[in-house]
Amino acid sequence: MFAGLRTFDRFRYFSLLTINEDIVLVTRQFADHRLTFSPHEYIGRSLFKDGHYQRDLADRVLEIIGQTGGRTLLEVGANIGTHSVYLTRSGRFDRLVCIEPAPDNIQLLKQNLSLNGLMDGTTVIECAVGDHNGVVDFYFDEKNCGAGGVIRPGEGARSVQVPLRRVDEILREVDVNPDDIGLVWMDIEGAEPAALRSMRDLLERRVPILMEYVPSRYEPSEASEMAADLAQYYGRCVVFSGKSERDVDIRNLPGGTNDILFLP
Question: Which parts of the sequence belong to the Methyltransferase FkbM domain (predicted)?
Answer without folding.
Answer: 75-218
